[in-house]
Amino acid sequence: MTPKAQPSRRRFLGDSALSLGALALRDLSAAGDPTQRPHHPARAKSVIYMHMEGAPPTLDMFDRKPALDRHDGEECPAEFLEQERFAFIKGHPRLLGHPHGWIRASNGEEICELFPHLAQQMESVTLVRSMVTDQFNHAPAEHLLFSGAPRPGRPSMGAWLSYGLGSENRDLPAFVVMVSGGALPSAGKALWGAGFLPSVHQGVEFRSFGQPVLYLDNPVGVDRARRRRTLDALNDLNRMHERRAGDPETTARIAQFELAFRMQASVPEAVDLASEPEEVRDLYGATPGRASFANNCLLARRLVERGVRFVHLFDAGWDIHGTGPNDDLLTQFPKQARRLDRPLAALIADLDRRGMLDDTLVVWGGEFGRTPMNEARNQAGYLGRDHHPHCFGMLLAGGGVKRGAVIGATDDLGYRVVDNPIHVHDLQATLLHLCGVDHKQLTYKFQGRDFRLTDVFGKVRRELLA
Amino acid sequence: MGPIAADSFDDARERRFAPEIDGVRLDQEQAGRRWRRRDDFVDGRVHNWRGDNSAFYLHRVVTVERDGNVTLSLGSDDAIAVWWNGRSVLRKNVARAARPDQDRVVVDAVAGDNELLLKITNGGGPGGFCFELWGAAEAGLRQRVRELERELDAHRGPAVPIMRELPAAKRRTTHVHVRGSFLDQGEVVHADTPKVWPPFPDGFPRNRLGLAKWLMAADNPLTARVLANRIWSELFGRGIVTTLEDFGTQGEPPSHPHLLDWLACEFVDGGWSLRHLLRTIVLSATYGQSSRLTDAHLRQDPDNVWLARGAAFRLSAEQLRDQALAVSGLLHVQLGGPSVMPPQPEGVWMQIYSGEKWRDAEGPDRYRRALYTFWRRTSPHPAMLLFDAQSREACVLRRSRSNTPLQALVLWNDPQFLEPARALGELASDRGGRDPARGIAWMWRRCLLREPTPTEVARLLDLFDDERARGLSATYAWSLVASVVLCLDEFVTRR
Q: Are A95 and A413 in contact (CB under 8 A)?
């Protein structure tokens, strides 16, 4: 179907054009029409994706290896080093046992003692122990995870979903991003970019200080009533022009100005944590007015409630190399665990008790794993692990995935997957599938070929599905 | 002597090894190490060695004829410590690559022999140093040379790196990388042009000059068509070939193939003059049509493929900002020079691998054309992105043209539009004098290039009077009115 041969479906759906995801009416055909409706019934209406930037040591969180403790301090097997390149490890590294103890989680598995709240929610979660990626540096691995290719320039998964499914809420964007932990991810804002897709599909960053959305606040001296009066004047003049020019694009612009005016009220309402009952704020450990992962988790729930399609949280500080107390397993990791444990568990519990978990997919993880060996960069006296693409753990909950399942396994030392490897492309295919999208059908033509999120790879992993 | 390995960089730098404790004993073993003579260490050149977290000692006897100052010009990778006749004269903890003349120390030399001892501490990668001795006269001359070079640089303007071909002997062999792996090298390949296009003539050199000649050759069927199509697309909002970047089998066929051929020929016959091509198009009857849409247009040709009306489309992110600056008289039209940083909201600029900061420009640099806005792919200017500028991570020739509420917010609240609104309001206020209606009409003509209707003036006058009656100052009321004009569909759309 060429754009010329068939007018785009959206042209007749005047209503859907009046949203944040709207392209100019005459510009829809740039590269083919997105589906804007699912390929099959969706299990998940929304996705909350929590990315732990830097890659958390999931080996020490969800994948206890008694053999690793037994051989702590010994040189790792020589076969680990064959054909292998590490980001930082030099020479023959030594194995490093788990630095923290273990408790029993509600799914019957052991979990690191630093996560007592999460332990209680594991019965609602699918734990994947066998994630695999191709990249062992942060930025390329993040690009691969979120855009399907290790280089910048491709659309991110939130942009694909916005392009494919549009927005559920006319007053809020389809794809919202929030950042915590005091730093941007290594790969920068490209991680929520639209790549070659129309730029309306890029993630809209909700900020934790100042105005929640850029340019939302009126300048000093313009209150809501004055904005209304200037908008009325603008509307009147635009309508005169509309009659003269006869262009539906003008009609759309009038509607967008009205929507902007509504957003100036709806966005502050959506992000107002003070309006949450104290009990709920305590559950998350959220404090209104502060930038924190806990606040972002609670905000994510509020946004999903209001129909935001994809909420992407980025939390920094997980790059546990052990070069000093700021990135080691004994000081930094417990700090991070304290920031993560309560809000993550609270989000799952809160969604569940509201009946929202069934159609909200929650994903938690990093961009790769960490080595079972101590990195010991420059003979550092701290404990830490190097980047490791061969295996890592991830959590998925709700939105049509199993409850309490454990998928895949790693070897005795946690170096490689021995059962059921799940590549990041498979995760992408499965995530789209749960949202009602066939990853092979959602394509965009760019520079002469059709592109998709999963590149030329990816399989929907049925064993994850409930 | 060295490199002497230590536990860490700090340890190597802080620990005092034998030469610091016992002094330099060139012919003896000191703590199990011996001094080695290095005739290869030539003055004024950078010399390197390997050894992470290590210390390296260098000793030199400097002989002068009479008492007086000499200057030690030093470079080091990384930290450096210097002793002159046993006295510490420099100690610097830095991490850097060695280059000549990074540090200078002026010392008193005594007639006869003087002892110089350097300690270079290296962190990771290569370690290295550079040393040169300058007499008093020489130091003065060097200083003068440096000043003159600085002066010369000021005349030259900023240096712009330019790509240049390597000399033939230095070119590397290029392989096909099998399945894209940089480790897996397949057959050797040479520079050539794709075979589907006209052959590369034997007479042309196989370098960039040859490529340029081939590209611009009279029988190259693509170059003129592609460029003519792009110019057309700038003026009509869509190309004759809509896939501007793809004239191949995966692209769209042209809507008007003969017109494209004719334009391409006209372009070449006009001596490749862009001005001639632009004039030809904008003076055509097709371009001069009204862009008013009728129901028949909308029903039969909503995309205006058949050009039965003039083009209408929203201006680009850059054009919108430049236009607002231009009508308000703020635009600073200086050509060229380094990029500038117009205002952007605080907290947007977060650099991952550098400490660079976004500093809102003051003065004329605040109002340069958007073309000069500083661009970083990991953190592009947010207002430009909202108007469909690309982040430039992928090469995208055709931007989408969205119409979103976030754009309305930028037009209302971004200082890049508020400041022009204020300036435009001031100009209109001056023009209007005691009659605001005159100021409004002037503003309308300036922004929309047509006379306003009485209703249009009345509506804005209404807003102005109402806000004044509510106690708003005249200046502020004028900027509110100007802001409405800058938001008009007629202003942001080209018709």
A: yes
Dihedrals phi, psi of B267, to nearest 5 degrees: -65, -45
Domain boundaries, chain B: 4-156, 195-311, 313-495
Q: B197 to each of A30, A414, B214, B248, B258, how far by Cα in Å?
A: 27, 54, 10, 11, 21
List, for residues B256-266, the tens digit of each pLDDT value. 999 999 999 99
> pLDDT, tens digit, for every residue of A273-294?
999 999 999 999 999 888 899 9
Specify the pLDDT at position A36: 63
Distance between CA atoms of A449 and B411, rounded to whole angstroms? 36
| Run of H or E residues at A414 | none
Q: How far apart are CA B307 and CA B309, in angstroms?
A: 5
- Is pLDDT of A296 > 90? yes
Residue B347 has pLDDT above 80, yes or no: no
Identify the DSSP state of A367. S
Q: For position A335, what pLDDT does the model report?
A: 97
Q: Is the pLDDT score of A24 beyond 90? A: no
Percent of chain A with pLDDT over 90: 75
Residues 410-469 of B with CB under 8 A from A: 410, 412-414, 418, 453, 455-456, 459-460, 462-463, 466-467
Length of chain A: 466
| Per-residue confidence (pLDDT) for residue A118, from 0 to 100 | 98
Query: What class does CATH assign to B4-156?
Result: mainly beta
Q: A208 touching B, CB under 8 A?
A: no
Residue linked to tokens 């409630």: A305
Spatial contact of A253 and B489, defined as CB atoms under 8 Å apart = yes
Please tell me the distance in Å from A322's CA to the nearest CA on chain B: 15
How many CA atoms lie within 13 Å of A89's alpha carbon, on the beta-carbon side? 25
CB contact under 8 A, B413 and A20: no
Q: Answer for the pair A245, A18: CB distance below 8 angstroms, yes or no.
A: no
User: For A25-43, how does the pLDDT look when each residue is reduced to its tens digit (9 = 90+)?
Assistant: 434 333 344 546 788 999 9
Q: Which of A208, A221, A135, A134 is nearest to A177 (CA)?
A: A208
| Among candidate residues B293, B315, B305, B288, the one with its CA nearest the CA of residue B493 | B315
CA B234 centroid distance within chain: 24
How far apart CA B483 and CA B460 sit, in angstroms, is: 11
Tokens representing B28? 């003896």
pLDDT at A419 over 50: yes
Bridge partners, B130 (sequence order): B46, B75
Domain ranges of chain A: 41-212+271-464, 216-268
Sequential DSSP letters for B359-424: ----GGGGGB-GGGB---TTS--HHHHHTT---SSS--SS---B--HHHHHHHHH-HHHHHHHHHH
Query: CB distance from A198 to chain B under 8 Å?
Result: yes
Whether residue A281 contacts residue A273, with contact meaning beta carbons closer than 8 Å, is answered with yes
Quote the DSSP letter at residue A329: T
Which of B242, B289, B303 to mutate to probe the A interface, most A CBs <10 Å? B303
> Mean pLDDT, to the nearest integer, of B400-428?
93
Tell me if A198 and B385 make a contact (CB, 8 A cut-off): no
Q: Which of B62, B47, B156, B66 is nearest to B110 (CA)?
A: B66
Structure tokens at B71: 């200057």
Preceding omega of B78 cis (within 30 degrees of 0): yes
Q: Which phi and psi angles does A60 have, rounded to 5°?
A: -90, 0
* Phi, psi values for residue A100, rounded to 5°: -130, 165
Distance (Å, rounded) from C-alpha B405 to C-alpha A259?
A: 6
Going by C-alpha positions, the residue among A339, A335, A319 that lies closest to residue A384 is: A319
Which residue has 């850097």 as its token pair? B96
Closest among A122, A448, A344, A231 to B480, alpha carbons compared: A231
Q: Which CATH class is domain A41-212+271-464?
A: alpha beta
Question: Would you say B466 and A229 are in contact if contact means Cβ atoms under 8 Å apart?
Answer: yes
Distance CA B484, CA A52 (A): 44
